[in-house]
Design a protein that fits this description.
By secondary structure, this protein is mainly alpha-helical. 77% of the residues lie in helices and 0% in strands. It has helices spanning 4-23, 26-45, 55-74, 78-99, 105-132, 134-137, 141-145. Helix 1 (4-23) runs antiparallel to helix 2 (26-45), helix 2 runs antiparallel to helix 3 (55-74) and helix 4 packs antiparallel against helix 5.
Length: 154
């Protein structure tokens, strides 16, 4: 039987991704696709290493960070901004695995797992934000500009 913390992390991931896709709006759905791809591809490419450095997972981590930063700049969502910051922290663990001794590998792995749980918790918060925050309900300015203009009736 898997350890309870692993079960918690996987359950939280499934719950967050399903909620982001089901109850979220466009920004949450776009983020969910990026998070799912990062999770799936990391598992598939984890065996590609140079020494102890998992270069393929590091590239996926950089790509996810770029995706979250791009989404946080495009959409008015606090959770995306915080998730991008958390992913920057996860990228720092890849750098530390390059320069640190092998004894620190477990602290690096633990930090990555904690950051992933944080991002999933932020995703669940993002579903709430998308449905409850007044700024999330507003249409983008581009969509409002395409609406036909109503004339003033006297």
């Amino acid at each position: 039987m898997p350890p309870p913390l692993w079960i918690f992390g996987v359950s939280l991931t499934y719950i967050a991704l399903v909620l982001l896709l089901w109850k979220g709006k466009r920004p949450e759905r776009e983020a969910a696709v990026g998070l799912y791809l990062a999770q799936f591809l990391s598992g598939q490419l984890d065996h590609l290493v140079v020494g102890e450095f998992r270069w393929a997972v590091a590239i996926i981590s950089v790509a996810l960070m770029a995706w979250l930063v791009q989404l946080s700049l495009r959409y008015d969502r606090w959770w995306l901004l915080f998730a991008a910051g958390a992913q920057i922290l996860a990228m720092g663990t890849h750098v530390s695995s390059l320069v640190g001794p092998d004894a620190l590998i477990w602290s690096v792995v633990t930090t990555r797992m904690v950051v992933w749980v944080e991002i999933m918790a932020l995703g669940i918060f993002g579903v709430w934000e998308a449905n409850a925050a007044p700024y999330a309900a507003q249409k983008p300015a581009r969509a409002a500009a395409r609406l036909p203009k109503q004339g003033v009736q006297l």
